[in-house]
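Margin note from the TA: students keep mixing up input and output lines. Inputs are the sequences; the output is the structure of the whole complex. Example:
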Amino acid sequence: SQKIEQNSEALNIQEGKTATLTCNYTNYSPAYLQWYRQDPGRGPVFLLLIRENEKEKRKERLKVTFDTTLKQSLFHITASQPADSATYLCALDIANSGYALNFGKGTSLLVTP
Amino acid sequence: NAGVTQTPKFQVLKTGQSMTLQCAQDMNHNSMYWYRQDPGMGLRLIYYSASEGTTDKGEVPNGYNVSRLNKREFSLRLESAAPSQTSVYFCASTISGANVLTFGAGSRLTVL
């Protein structure tokens, strides 16, 4: 079956450091992969989409890599700030489902001053 | 620009009661979705509507029904609520082919 795995343990880092979150998947051949941010009590918010032919994508302090051979995406937040504290979700499309997405369980990031 | 609006935000039901969660989007999106989110389980797709007039089951459809009332609105109905349906429910939408989902703020449902 299709699986998306994210580190279930919370990631605690110090302000100013780079946070790196991992997303691994099995039994997918995705055309693209997405990352979302979710704050407590709110719905997920889209951050970045990376296509299979893109090795890396950047948006401000965010960087995503996509390795279809390893079946892995890495999500980096550089110069992290306490406001970056949230849960980050990785998502892949579900085949033949009207563009619905399967989500990983998310990794909680806590950035401390 | 409201995006995706869900009502109610909170609801407490007794086992066996019925209720409908409402979702509306004002972005002219074609596809709409209902997910539930439980601790340790992540987001799971309940039902989706790829376009107005169509609905399909997702991963966990049992105990739920949906109606795509028009292009804007997609409702989720619990006919006979069970404690296992205690969850946070999210509605989402996207324009076809884009796959980037816009989510509502969620509806927290407790079934006693």
